[in-house]
Amino acid sequence: MAGISPLEEFLFTYVETAGGLWEEIEPQVYDVLLPDAGQPLRLAFDPEALPEHPGAQLLTFGNPLLDQMLEKAQARGLAALAFLGDVHLAPYGLEQQVQRDLTLPEGWALQVESVDPRHVGHTLFWFEATYVSDEKEQDVYSVGLDRYYGRLVRYLEPLLAGERLSEVRLWPYPDAPAMPLERAYLLAQERVIRNVTATAHSLKHEMEARLAVQTEQMVRYFADLREEFLERVKKAAARGDDSASLHLRLEALDREEKLRLEEIRHNALLRVQLKLINMLHVKIPRLFLRARLVPTKVGEARVATPSTLIPLNLTWDPVVGKTDAIDCPNCKHPTYILMLNRRGELRCPVCSDDPRLKEHR
Question: Is 138 helix (H, G, I), strand (E, B) or coil?
Fold first, then answer.
């Protein structure tokens, strides 16, 4: 069906997955029968169609029925598995590409001994943050994680835009080691919390500004009422009338003002809820390279290992067409620059004892 909205596509998929039936009455108007519903529902996506179908519900964001459908759909499909197969695993001049991506120690060159493809596990997490105060706002955050290195990646979500992912494993490559899902989840959650915290601070600042305006308006309103009652008390006293009832109403006015102000302050309190709503596990082929550093000058071997060869394990990512950064053996931070310390150990520039780098620390 051409020209249908993503929300309509969701409705069709949800109804069919739930074992229900749907029928198009006219464009953007449908009769839907769900297994847990006693009778068909007429749903419309076009507000202008409602006058002709007075019994129809407008299915749009914020509608309780749609919220219920989304919640049930999320519960049914919290996690899914997909494979990426359309990658080029035989790049031309791979060894030269790797050497261009890395900065090697002076006087050393790279030799690739073997290349083995493996599937690297990735997980794309979707979190929903709900900000509740005098208003309710919701945001969805996505975080992609390479579970071999434990690094955040940005290329997972764009893969969903096309038809590159498959439900079947297209290549018979083994899986690379992957960090436990619990740890990956905590890393993703930590990243999202930073974003949520920043949004919460911004919303809190806006609410405090609204609270100040609302408080001032409320205080002014009750001050005007109080002034009016006091004027009536003065007039009653001048006439010699009993003003006890007016005093009681003044006391009630004070109590109501306090209650209203407390209600405003309570509504201005920001409450944040964060929950995981979906996960997508993606297996992506990657090239694992067993390599070694070899000295290119006589004399360099004296600062290397006893065998004069330094083993190096590398990976090349066909999705981005680039060598992955190497984890520094000392600090574990990724780096593209490799140096040798006085003991012939590989280090990143920060961990190196090269005196030329002291000014950069």
Answer: strand
Range of the domain at 48: 6-76
Mean pLDDT value of segment 77-90: 86
Do the domain assignments include residue 347?
A: yes
Shared-domain flag, residues 10 and 68? yes
- Gap between the Cα atoms of 46 and 29, Å rounded: 7
CA gap 356, 97 in Å, rounded: 27
pTM reported for the whole predicted model:
0.68
Determine the Cα–Cα distance for residues 284 and 293; give it in Å rounded to an integer: 28
CB 324 within 8 A of CB 289: no
Q: Do 123 and 98 belong to one domain?
A: no
pLDDT tens for residues 118-141?
999 999 999 999 998 877 888 999
Quote the number of domains for the chain.
Answer: 4
Report the distance separating Cα 199 and Cα 203, nearest Å. 6
The tokens describing 59, both together, are 């299915």
Estimate the share of the chain in helix, then strand, then coil, as percent rounded to the nearest 5: 40, 30, 30
Q: Pick the last residue of a domain from 43, 76, 109.
A: 76
Integer Cα distance of 213 and 31 in angstroms? 47
Q: Same structural domain for residues 114 and 125?
A: no
